[in-house]
């Protein structure tokens, strides 16, 4: 499990670093339009808005990843790592090798993807603890 912990910590660090590069997690809800930054040309504004939206999407994915990685580390500490959070069965080791941060087995993952997740709020809360993890 030590190798997995190292990998999770490493991926958590790099995901957090990328988030910081993109402007941090605090301003995730900042949806200010770009128009007030002095762009006169409408086409430029549209292009900048588009690239900002890609940035938001990427950042949201990163935030999600940071949350998943840090909760995987929590489960590693609590002894629940490698167990499906939905059905309680063991997650296939091959699946954990590919995606060490997953918390559900393939079957439950498919179910969740079909019906959607309801714990988006929890994901945001978990990110607040991610930066204090080092203590
Ligand atoms: Zn399951």
Helices and strands in order, then pairings?
Layout: H1 2-21, H2 42-78, H3 93-98, H4 106-115, H5 120-130
The structure holds zinc ion.
Number of helices: 5
Beta-strand residue fraction: under 5%
Q: What would you report as the Rg, rounded to the nearest angstrom?
A: 18 Å
Instruction: Give the CA-CA distance, first to last residue.
Output: 21 Å
Largest sheet: none
What's the β-strand tally?
A: 0
Q: Spans of 5+ residues with little confidence (pLDDT < 50)?
A: 27-36, 121-134
- Percent of residues in helices: 55-70%
Q: Which ligands, by name, code or SMILES, are bound?
A: zinc ion
What structural category do the secondary elements indicate?
mainly alpha
Shape: elongated
Mean model confidence by pLDDT: 78
Question: Multimeric state of these chains?
Answer: single chain
Notes on the protein architecture:
The protein is mainly α and 135 residues long. It is built from 5 helices and no strands. The chain has helices at residues 2-21, 42-78, 93-98, 106-115, 120-130. It is elongated, with a radius of gyration of 18 Å. 62% of the residues lie in helices and 0% in strands. The structure holds zinc ion.
């Amino acid at each position: 499990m030590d190798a997995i912990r190292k990998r999770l910590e490493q991926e958590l660090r790099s995901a957090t670093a990328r988030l910081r590069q993109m402007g941090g997690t605090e301003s995730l809800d900042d949806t200010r339009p770009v128009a007030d930054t002095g762009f006169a040309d409408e086409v430029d504004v549209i292009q900048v808005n588009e690239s900002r939206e890609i940035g938001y999407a990427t950042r949201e994915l990163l935030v999600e990843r940071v949350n998943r990685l840090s909760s995987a580390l929590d489960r590693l500490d609590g002894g629940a790592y490698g167990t499906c959070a939905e059905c309680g069965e063991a997650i296939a080791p091959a699946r954990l090798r590919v995606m060490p941060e997953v918390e559900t087995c393939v079957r439950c993952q498919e179910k969740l993807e079909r019906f959607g997740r309801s714990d988006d709020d929890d994901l945001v809360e978990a990110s607040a603890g991610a930066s204090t993890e080092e203590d």
